[in-house]
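Please decode residue identities from the backbone states below.
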């Protein structure tokens, strides 16, 4: 059953999977991220949106270990986390699914799932059978229709390639996924596959930060939407409480839904 967002349950307050508190990152005199706080709960998708240069990628880089914050705090499962590099991030169950997926095109699904973390037999040889078996099990969870375990991933569809990249993350116990434009350049059928994958991940209690420029994707996939503008957080809203135009006003004007007028929203379509 997919988790829903609330501050408490019958058993007491819910604990976020991840909290980014007052994160600040500067490059010289440029404040790329200026005091941003967002959180993510189990079984939830939080979309992080904003125009080019808004700071969303830099913010997420602090969580993934690609670029440590200058100040602020990262909390994982209620405990302070120290993340200086991607290895630290993986220790805390944080994995990134990049837009380009970082797959090795000439090897099959199992080879990609275990790339750099290969299983070996007692003699030191690659244990292809064990890796294929483990990959089949995780694929059965994520995408039961996946049948191309022996096919080089360069021959797979975009949706199937996403399946392989996600399988690699969840096999190694990721609990927090960062997905960068997961449906970019995909057709309708492949996009539907990715939506099914995200639904499955949510049902397993995995939390997802979704970076996307596609407002339709955001409304299809996200539970909450965090909007950034010029390094600052404009606000975080529940998807069911806002319209696409209100979110566009946050992205373009930096105005929260209760601050924007109908005339201002109409002007978005005139410009």
């Amino acid at each position: 059953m997919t988790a829903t967002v609330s501050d408490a349950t019958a058993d007491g307050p819910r604990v976020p999977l991840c909290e980014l508190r007052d994160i600040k990152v500067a490059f010289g005199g440029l404040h790329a991220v200026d005091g941003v706080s967002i959180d993510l709960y189990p079984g939830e998708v939080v979309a992080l949106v904003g125009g080019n240069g808004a700071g969303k990628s830099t913010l997420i880089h602090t969580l993934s270990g690609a670029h440590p914050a200058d100040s602020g705090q990262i909390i994982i499962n209620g405990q302070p986390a120290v993340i200086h590099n991607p290895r630290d991030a993986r220790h805390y169950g944080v994995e990134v699914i990049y837009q380009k997926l970082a797959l090795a095109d000439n090897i099959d699904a199992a080879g990609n799932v275990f790339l750099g973390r290969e299983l070996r037999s007692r003699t030191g040889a690659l244990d292809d059978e064990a890796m294929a078996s483990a990959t089949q099990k995780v694929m059965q969870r994520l995408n039961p229709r996946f049948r191309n375990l022996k096919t080089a991933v360069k021959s797979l569809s975009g949706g199937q390639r996403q399946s392989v990249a996600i399988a690699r993350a969840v096999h190694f116990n990721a609990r927090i996924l960062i997905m960068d434009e997961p449906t970019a350049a995909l057709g309708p059928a492949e996009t539907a596959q990715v939506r099914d994958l995200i639904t499955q991940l949510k049902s397993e209690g995995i939390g997802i930060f979704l970076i996307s420029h596609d407002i339709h994707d955001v409304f299809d996939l996200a539970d909450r939407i965090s909007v950034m503008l010029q390094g600052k957080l404009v606000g975080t809203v529940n998807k069911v409480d806002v319209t696409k135009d209100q979110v566009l006003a946050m992205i373009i004007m930096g105005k929260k839904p209760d601050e924007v007028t109908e005339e201002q929203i109409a002007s978005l379509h005139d410009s």
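Observation: Residues 188-203 form the longest helix (16 residues).
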